[in-house]
Write a structure and sequence with these properties.
The protein is α+β, with helices and mostly antiparallel strands. It has 8 helices and 4 strands; from the N terminus they run ααααααβαββαβ. The chain has a 4-stranded antiparallel sheet with strand order 2-3-1-4, covered by helices on one side. A hairpin with a 2-residue loop joins strand 2 and strand 3. Helix 2 packs across helix 3 and helix 3 packs antiparallel against helix 4.
Length: about 260
């Protein structure tokens, strides 16, 4: 009965094994210091001032080792800095600026001064100044040439654009001109309509279309420039012939 009860109870009988394994794992991760603390805390180990002294000795030893490693790093850095300084001095000595300034540091005694070298040096200085002036002038000449070329291209483009024909918008209009009655002279009506002359207006073909009761209307074609002639202007001009024209309608309107 008791056995069955223990079987159903959730008791961790092997907990001490897992505790030992966890302790050993952390001791291995912490290193020798952790090992010394483990020995001091373990069964049968010495406790008290002796254990604290041993722990202090271990810490001092570890600090000495770390100090030695830091000294080695500092020495390496010093060597690297000295090498960089030596290399920098060598580069400065071999640079053109140092070569140019090196002759200025040489002192010549008054008894050994010679005029020809001085003249040569002055000539070289004047040549350098002339070269600088020439280079600067060449840049200005290039800028002037570029400006002239740009102006020439703009002028050519403007001339080409001016010669290009301008596209004129035109429209084709079919007008229905209705008379008052069947007694209206349609030939005279057409002559009146064609007598209208406007800038941008061109008359085309025409025909008479029956409307009813013997009345015929005049259907006439014309081409107009949109910027110069409008439909309202056409209607106004045609309706001025009141004796022949009753009304004007736009039968068709198409862009050309």
């Amino acid at each position: 009965m008791a056995t069955n009860f223990l079987v159903h109870e959730k008791i961790w009988f092997d907990k001490f094994k897992y505790d030992d394994a966890e302790r050993k794992f952390y001791e291995q991760m912490n290193g020798p210091v952790a090992g010394s603390s483990r020995q001091s805390s373990g069964p049968g180990a010495s406790s008290g001032p002796g254990g604290d002294h041993s722990e202090l000795v271990v810490r001092i030893a570890s600090l000495e080792v770390e100090n030695q490693s830091l000294r080695g790093v500092v020495q390496d850095l010093q060597q690297a800095i000295s090498k960089l300084e030596a290399r920098l001095s060598a580069l400065e000595k071999s640079s053109p600026a140092h070569r140019a300034t090196a002759p200025q540091t040489q002192h010549v005694s008054p008894m050994r001064q010679v005029e020809p070298p001085t003249r040569k040096a002055a000539t070289a200085t004047e040549d350098d100044e002339d070269d600088d002036i020439d280079l600067f002038g060449s840049d200005e000449e290039e800028d002037k040439e570029a400006a002239k070329l740009r102006e020439e291209r703009l002028r050519q483009y403007a001339e080409k654009k001016a010669k290009k024909p301008v596209l004129v918008a035109k429209s084709s209009i079919l007008l229905d001109v209705k008379p008052w009655d069947d007694e209206t002279d349609m030939a005279q009506l057409e002559a009146c309509v064609r007598s209208i002359q406007l800038d941008g207006l061109t008359w085309g073909g025409s025909k008479l279309v029956p409307v009813g009761y013997g009345i015929r209307k005049l259907q006439i074609q014309c081409v107009v420039e949109d910027d110069k002639v409008g439909t309202d202007l056409l209607e106004e001009e045609i309706t001025k012939f009141e004796e022949h024209v009753q009304s004007v309608d736009i039968a068709a309107f198409n862009k050309i």
